[in-house]
Amino acid sequence: MTDREGMSTAETEVVDLCRELIAIDTSNYGDHSGPGEREAAEYVAAKLDEVGLEATIYESHPKRSSVVARIEGTDPSRPPLLVQGHLDVVPADPADWTHHPFSGEVADGCVWGRGAIDMKDMDAMVLAVVRQRMREGRRPPRDIVLAFLADEEAGGTHGAHWLVEKHPDLFADCTEAISEVGGFSITVNENRRLYLIETAEKGLAWMRLTARGTAGHGSMVNNDNAITELAAAVARLGQHKFPVRLTPAVRTFLEEVCAEFGIEFREDDVEATVAQLGPAASMVGATLRNSVNPTVLAGGYKANVIPGTATAQVDGRFLPGLEKEFFAEIDRLLGPKVTREFIQYLPAVQTEFTGGIVTAMTQALQAEDAGAKAVPYCMSGGTDAKAFMRLGIRNFGFVPLRLPPGLDFAGMFHGVDERVPVDALQFGVRVLDRFFDLA
């Protein structure tokens, strides 16, 4: 079905769906103080119900809501494909933005607002494609399980992880999944674009550090000061540079990208190689090694009182296969007088860039962009793939977006003036529609 200018219904509808989703504030503050995802979940469920697809809302806590639906395929012998995305967003201060972050305004050829790329764009693209296919009676070859999830921005405790624990039957027969932070393009030249498919992501270790000492009067000499001990440990962590470790996804990505851009891939100086990658350098650089960053420091309550304890929080990230090495180094740097405990722990994820699903992604991209080449990469952050990995589901980051050259796409994740080009949304709709037939 097509309408004005030969565009499909899904291509015209996706912009309004994206705008309307952005206008629903689903800010996640890491607790239950925000608006939650209930309103957005009801919106999604209603859009699916309109076209005859039964959707169920699951609520792990008041207002912390996820939506799950299943599209029946034509071949029941094939395992279902999971298409998962999250409804929550990180908070945004309107004073910092060119356009209000919850307006969903269209300006300069883009849809602006919090969630425009993380990841209400994908939610809208999936809704648009599914709604058109349901209206036209076009069933995919395999069942597709749709999951629009709560709480991803705080680790998925009240969303994906809760569903995997409480309702694993919803996904138990799925073998593969697509989700966020992949499928976007990097321009090589006017005839060539690389589309980065996420096949791996770092593990997450948010830790609370505690040092204990002898409390006392601030005027006294004290050689057992908890703040001094903690500050020294935090400084060691913050100043430490972990060694470069090339995981399979990172190595393949660098080999492919260097070949396309005509850059020498120097294994003896990988950082110098990455520095030549332009806007992609910061994103790739974070996947070369393990990392830890101090983020919170607290201790004491009065200038003349030496406290008995002091605490800090750090954000640790470790590459697939390097978890033991990471924690051994952390413990060495902390020393014997500082203990650690997890605030949040999620394992690293990785899968091979092989199989029919990879072929389907590649063919769908090339059908809409003759200059497309799909390449795997490792993500420095984390997604709900970590939850579904527990069920043995292979996850790929695949939100197909053809982006204009020079756009700092990675810099807009959790950043100010987040926005997605309208034509990129429409490109994504076309690619996903093809992908659902090929996967």
Describe the model.
The protein has 439 residues and is an alpha+beta fold. The protein contains 12 helices and 19 strands. The strands form 5 sheets. The protein has a 6-stranded mixed sheet. Strands 8, 9, 16 and 17 form a 4-stranded mixed sheet that branches. A hairpin with a 2-residue loop joins β8 (184-189) and β9. The model has no long low-confidence stretch (mean pLDDT 94).
Keyphrases for this structure?
single chain; alpha+beta; six-stranded mixed sheet; four-stranded mixed sheet; globular
Gap between N and C termini? 22 Å
Helix content: 25-40%
Low-confidence stretches: none
Largest sheet: spatial strand order: 1-2-6-3-7-18
The chain-level structural class is alpha+beta
Topology:
Elements: H1 9-23, H2 38-50, E1 55-61, E2 64-71, E3 81-86, E4 106-107, E5 110-112, H3 120-136, E6 144-149, H4 160-166, E7 176-179, E8 184-189, E9 192-201, E10 203-212, E11 216-217, H5 226-239, H6 248-261, H7 270-274, H8 281-285, E12 291-299, E13 305-306, E14 309-318, H9 323-334, E15 338-346, E16 349-350, H10 356-368, E17 372-379, H11 385-388, E18 394-397, E19 419-421, H12 422-438
Helix pairs in contact: 1-3, 1-12, 3-12, 10-12
Question: Summary?
Answer:
The protein has 439 residues and is an alpha+beta fold. The chain is 31% helix and 25% strand.
